[in-house]
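Self-study notes.
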Amino acid sequence: MVIKKRKLLTILLISLFSSLSVAQIKEYKISKSNDQWKKILTEKQYHILRESGTERPFSSSLDNNYQKGTYVCAACKTPLYKSEHKYNSESGWPSFDREISGSIETDVDYKVGYARTELKCNSCGGHLGHLFNDGPKKTTGKRHCINGTALKFIPFK
């Protein structure tokens, strides 16, 4: 019985470490060292984008921005969201019902004690926010709940 438990434990540990090493291997099109990111991002941007932080709700001016334009990653300027897909979720964070195709990657995060779908910039890996299934039913039903600090808004000319 002890040998079976050891084998099972060994298999579980190998699985765990294998999945961790695969997750750490991903290389992004835009890659910088932590020191390089710190030089180009504000302290708040660095905390959110590189350390998966969260801004206070209702603290971003982009939450109530409904101008026409494109929302880009504050770190690498990759276009992420179109203004036409932004809506007022009343959550306190800028919310979108979909991303620009290919611009976002998802991951699972357990930082609050349960699984949530994390949204990241597909070009630099910057943490943007989380995906929820309580968005507008008439469109996608999805809510991309995004930290305004992780975005820059580029108005249409």
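Second protein, same conventions, sequence then structure:
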Amino acid sequence: MTTDVFIDSFGTCWQDPPPPRYRAAVLGINLTNALLNPPDDPALADIVAHQTGQDAGVRDYVLNTPGAARIITDAVHELTALLAAAQGRPVQLLANCWYGRHRSVDRTKES
């Protein structure tokens, strides 16, 4: 049996969290203060103004935040535990930051 895992990202400044997927067990991660925000860096502000976390330079900058690897590792462990507890139900990861363009962005795919 295959369990669906959904990843949704959003900006809390602009929108409410996406609604839970049908019967999904939900894990939320707030990245607002946990990861560096590229627009806050004066050397990058103009460069990243029209980019997102899906652009390699932005993604690399964010992932070079001290502790970023630990955040990812912890999220994987929490999602793994949630999958086990969900007993075949879908699982949804909600990743958010303030604007939802640079730190929380991931390609949202339905499995």
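Instructor comment on the second fold: The beta strands are 5-11, 25-30, 91-97.
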